[in-house]
Design a protein that fits this description.
Elements (H helix, E strand, L loop, with lengths): L6 H4 L10 E5 L21 H11 L11 E6 L2 E6 L11 E2 L2 E2 L7 H5 L2 E6 L2 E6 L10 E4 H5 L4 H23 L4 H17 L8 H10 L6
Antiparallel strand pairs: 1-8, 2-3, 4-5, 6-7
Length: 218
């Protein structure tokens, strides 16, 4: 999700890499779950998030639409996002004040309270200074905080997916016909979320193959 904000207003002013330490440690949240509540439509999912969730739940993508996932238009493209409960506005995966899918939590959740800023063909991490309610957080290495076994491959995927969406958004912005726009948007959903992935093959390579073969970018 693109955000038009001033970095000076929301960050501590530093640019971090995966090798850096930042004040992220929150004592395992210590009973706090504020970052999992009333997040609205901000938890947008990428193909890796959906692949992990459906594999964890042993289901297909369509079966969790309307329960754990909603579809929404994000910067002109139809993408899935975590559905918040109607009663409390909490994430549907929040059970008893704890994340029930913490081991396979979405990328945005792994980041928090970090953010990513894209520039010069890459990205850096920044610390959102006022987002986490916990005070006096301890320093943690960013790669450890994100918790990916292969952080280099994960960061490559994040950047590749971001650049792909930018290209799709630019293409959609040039379209005038509403049906053409809808078809282009739904094709992203079908190719990268609905179509299943082979669990016996490398997930990242499957995504890259689909991007390379994507018909609308030929």
């Amino acid at each position: 999700m693109l955000r038009d904000v001033s970095m000076e207003e929301i960050s501590d002013g530093k640019k971090y890499t995966k090798h850096d330490m930042a004040r992220l440690g929150c004592n395992d949240c210590n009973g706090c779950s504020q970052c999992c509540e009333k997040m609205g439509d901000t938890i947008v999912l990428d193909p890796l998030d959906v692949y992990r969730i459906t594999k964890h739940l042993n289901c297909d993508f369509q079966s969790i639409i309307g329960t754990y996932i909603d579809l929404r238009i994000v910067d002109g493209v139809c993408l899935p996002g975590i559905r918040m409960t109607d009663e409390t506005g909490a994430c549907g995966f929040l059970k008893g004040g704890r994340c029930s899918i913490h081991a396979i939590r979405p990328g945005i959740c792994r980041l928090f309270p970090l953010g990513r800023a894209y520039e010069d063909g890459s990205f850096y991490y920044f610390l959102q200074k006022d987002e986490c309610a916990v005070k006096n957080r301890s320093k943690v290495k960013i790669s450890k905080w994100i918790g990916e076994d292969d952080i280099e491959s994960y960061e490559k995927f994040v950047l590749t997916w971001h650049n792909f969406l930018i290209r799709i958004r630019e293409m959609v912005a040039k379209m005038d016909d509403h049906e053409e726009i809808r078809a282009a948007s739904m094709m992203v959903l079908g190719n990268f979320f609905v179509a299943p992935y082979d669990a016996q093959c490398d997930f990242y390579e499957q995504v890259y193959e689909r991007i390379e073969a994507y018909p609308l970018l030929k």
